[in-house]
Amino acid sequence: MSKAKRGIYAAAVSPFREDGSLDTQKHIAYCNHLITDGGCDGVAPTGTTGEGNSISYRDRIALPGAFAEAGFDPNRAIFGTGSCATQDAVDLTSAALSAGYNNVLVLPPFYYKNASDEGLYAYFSQLVETVGDDRLRVYIYHFPQMSMTPIPVDVVVRLKQAFGPVIAGLKDSSGDLSQSLAFADATGGVDADFDIYPSSESFLFDGLAGGCAGIISGSTNAFGAYSRDAMASPDGADSDIFAMVKAARAMASKYPLMAAMKQMEAWRTGDDSWTRMAPPLKPLSAEQQASLKADVEALDNTKMKANG
Predict the structure, then answer these.
(1) Does residue 113 carry a catalytic annotation?
(2) 59-96: per-residue pLDDT in tens?
(3) In whole angstroms, how far apart are CA 301 and each of 244, 263, 294?
(4) Dist CA 110 CA 168 (whole Å)
(5) Given this model, what pLDDT does residue 191 score?
(6) Range of the domain at 102
(7) 149 is catalytic
(8) Are 9 and 82 spatial neighbours (Cβ–Cβ below 8 Å)?
(9) Residue 52: inside a domain, yes or no?
(10) CB 68 within 8 A of CB 44
(11) Half-sphere exposure of 128 (CA within 13 A, CB side)
(12) What is the value of pTM for the model shown?
């Protein structure tokens, strides 16, 4: 068991059955697609894009074991295990660790607002101490727009100093590259073995140059191969394919991202059940679907012209 492979991650969308339960086997097959043809180095299941907080505790706690039975590489998965209840976060994290998945993405306890620095530190330290396993690798999840619970840089530094390699990194979904770079500067970033992942592939090269480890993005569900190809291009940030990366991200951002990524997977597979969302989220409207289809076709046409 080791730290998660660095690089391009998809915050994987989650397929639901008609009764609202998680379709675990379809989810595993989809994550295997993402790390092969999908162009990603790894996946982050049961995060925000995966509607993780709308998935039942029963389904979430069983998921890592199912991934293990399917032989999914533990170094290419970072499971979302955060919860408002610290003990639930402990149980979900322990279940992942027991199944062989030691890399977990942990939201702060987000129900009670205006949490103090001491309260946030207590949550993460209690999680680490209660799990009590040096194999654990925690990636702190900073998403203030959604959680309304920002995690100050000082708290991250304090946790890293207290628990060393167990506090392995951070996902920064603030959408502000300067925030990601501030975390990297304060912790030492990859040079100090602290892996920071901004949430937009548009930040890929600037983030890497500033000490980040890659990206964990929702739009790489559909466009991960663009980022893979940009990384492989000798022109890097100046390549035509990275221009496509930024164009794809900007296009995806016009729509409710989770619903758009699910719609694109439904088109890819011919399986309309992919469009199911957990309440209160809803699928794209017919008008949004038509607009997205036109935008994707325009993007594909641009790529074909760029390839000659």
Answers:
(1) no
(2) 999 999 999 999 999 999 999 999 999 999 999 999 99
(3) 11, 20, 11
(4) 21
(5) 98
(6) 7-234
(7) no
(8) no
(9) yes
(10) no
(11) 24
(12) 0.96
Our answer to whether residue 111 is catalytic in this structure is yes
At 305 the pLDDT is 62
Which of 160, 171, 197, 275 is catalytic? The answer is 171
Catalytic residue chosen out of the listed positions 9, 141, 197, 226: 141
Return d(Cα 87, Cα 78) in angstroms, integer: 19
Please pick, among 111, 112, 254, 293, the residue that the annotation labels catalytic.
Answer: 111
pLDDT at 208: 98
Residue 116 belongs to domain with CATH number? 3.20.20.70
Sign of CA dihedral 222, 226, 231, 232: positive
Instruction: Yes or no: say if 199 and 171 are a contact pair by the CB < 8 Å rule.
Output: yes
The residue ranges of DSSP E strands in 5-155, in sequence order, are 7-10, 42-43, 79-80, 103-106, 137-142
Q: What's the start-to-end Cα distance of the chain, in Å?
A: 44
Q: Report the distance separating Cα 255 and Cα 261, nearest Å.
A: 9
Residue 264 resides in a domain = no
For the chain, residues with pLDDT lower than 70 are 1, 304-308
Question: What is the C-alpha to C-alpha distance for residues 192 and 174, in angstroms, rounded to an integer?
Answer: 22
CA distance 188 to 65: 34
Q: From the centroid of its chain, how far is CA 238?
A: 26
Query: What is the number of structural domains in the chain?
Result: 1
Q: Tell me whether residue 48 is one of the annotated catalytic residues.
A: yes
Catalytic residue among 5, 24, 46, 48: 48
